Amino acid sequence: MPASVLYFFIIHGVLTFPDGSLTGHCTGSTAMAEAQKKQAVLRAEPAAEKTVNSRFCKVTINGRRELDVPAGKSLLTALRDEKILVPTVCRGRGICGVCKVKVLHGGGAILPTETPLLTKEEQRCNIRLSCQITVQNDIAVEIPEPVLSVREYDTVCTEIEELTYDMKRFRFELKNPPSMKFVAGQFVQLLCPRYKESSEAVYRAYSIASNPNDNGYIDLIIRKAPRGICTTWCFDYLKTGRSVRLSGPYGDFHLSDTDAPIICIAGGSGMAPFVSMLNAMRDIRSKRQVSYFFGGNTVRDLCLQEQMKIFESVLPGFMFIPVVARPAENERWSGQTGLVTEAVQRQFKDLSRHEGYLCGGPGMIDASIKVLKGLGMPDEKIYYDRFA
What pLDDT sits at residue 8? Predict the structure, then answer.
C-alpha cells in the first residue's frame, strides 16, 4: 500500500483540516521526491516512549474530545491507543510522512526529522508528523474528520489466489462490522500478529483491489518482499479460515470526477487500486478513455492479463498495455519491451489534456512523473500512490 504519498484526507488533491487550512497538492513531485531522499538519510525514529514522573497530559482533538495521556508517549502512539487510527506506513519512524496532524499548541518546535516531509505551507500551518512529537505538555491538535471515522474490522481470510511467483490476491470477508464503505483507490492497514519471525505485531498498508460496490469483503494484492515482516506472514503463515484485523479505509487516491482521458502506470502490486477503479467504472458503464501501462521485469512478472482483457471487452475506452523490460530467452513475448515510461513516450506525444494516475515504488513514480510532465501533463493533474 500502499502506501504512499500524502494520500489520506486529501480533497481534490489538497490536504484539508477542520479549520479549512490546506497542505500542498498530493502531486508535488519534485519537492516530495527530494524530501524523501533527504528523509532516507535522516532515518528518523519514533518519538521516545518513556513515562516522565508518571505525569499525564491532556490531548485535545478538534476542540471537542480530550484524552489523558502519559507524558513521554509519542502522539501517534497515544492516538492509536485510543482507537484514533491515524495511519502510518513506516511504523512511526518518520519516513513515510503519512501521520500528519495540525498542532494548535503544545507540540514544541518542528524537528529536523520532520521538515523534509513537510512543505513550507504545511510548516507555516503547524502541520506535524505525529510520530515525531513526544507528549510532554498539554497539547491541542486538529485531525481531519475522515480519519476520525476510520474503524477496525474483524475479518476472516476466505481465499488466497496465486497471481505470480511472488504475488498473491487475498480475500478477507468482513465479520464485524460486516461491510466497509470505501472509494476505489483507497487502502487499508493489515495487522500482522507476532509470529516466529517477528517479536511484535505491526501494521502494513495495502491498496484495496476489490469492487467498492461489493463491500462485504476486501481483496488485497500483496507482493512478497525480501525479509518483509508482514508479507512473509501473509505468504508463509496465513491460511484460509484465519481471523485477520484490518483498519480503514484510508486515503484519497481516486479518479477525478471529470471526463479527461487517463494514463495509468503501475507495476507489481501497484495493480491493486486500478483493479478496484476499473470494476467501479464497469459498474457505471463508463466510456472514459483509459490507457493502462503495466510494467514487469520479465513476462512472469505480469499478472491478471485475462481480467484486463475482460475489462477491455466491457469498457469501450479502456486499453491495457503490458510492458516487459527484459524478456527472458525462454519467454515468448511479442508485446512492448523496455521501461514502462518508454512505452508511454512511444504511444503519446502530447498529454496536456490527460490526467495521470500512478501506483508503485518511488523510483517508478518519480520516473513516470518526469515523463508525464515532459509530455505536457500539468503537475496538478498527476496523482500517485507511492509505496514506502
Answer: 37
**The pLDDT value given to residue 331:** 87
Closest listed residue to residue 56, CA positions, set 44, 68, 73: 68
63 CB-near residues (< 8 Å, 6+ apart): 140, 142
- In the chain, at which residue ranges do the beta strands (DSSP E only) sit? 10-11, 14-16, 22-25, 56-61, 65-70, 100-105, 127-129, 139-142, 151-164, 167-176, 187-192, 202-207, 217-223, 243-250, 262-267, 290-296, 318-324, 336-337, 355-360, 382-386
| Residues of the chain falling short of pLDDT 70 | 1-53, 388
In the CATH hierarchy, which fold is given to the domain comprising 152-250?
Answer: Elongation Factor Tu (Ef-tu); domain 3 (2.40.30)
Q: What is the pLDDT of residue 11?
A: 33
Residues with Cβ within 8 Å of 149's Cβ and at least 6 positions away in sequence, in order, are: none
- Pick one of 3.40.630.30, 3.30.420.40, 3.30.420.10, 3.10.20.30 as the CATH number of 10-147: 3.10.20.30
Q: Is 155 helix (H, G, I), strand (E, B) or coil?
A: strand
Q: Looking at residue 25, what is its pLDDT?
A: 30
Residues in CB range of 120: below 8 A, 6 or more apart: none
Sequence-distant (≥ 6) Cβ neighbours of residue 3 within 8 angstroms: 89, 96, 98, 187, 204, 205, 206, 385, 386, 387, 388
Specify whether the CB–CB gap between 44 and 132 falls below 8 A.
yes
pLDDT in the model for residue 133: 96
Q: What is 262-386's CATH number, 3.40.50.80, 3.40.109.10, 3.40.50.300, 3.90.70.10?
A: 3.40.50.80
Enter the pTM of the model. 0.80
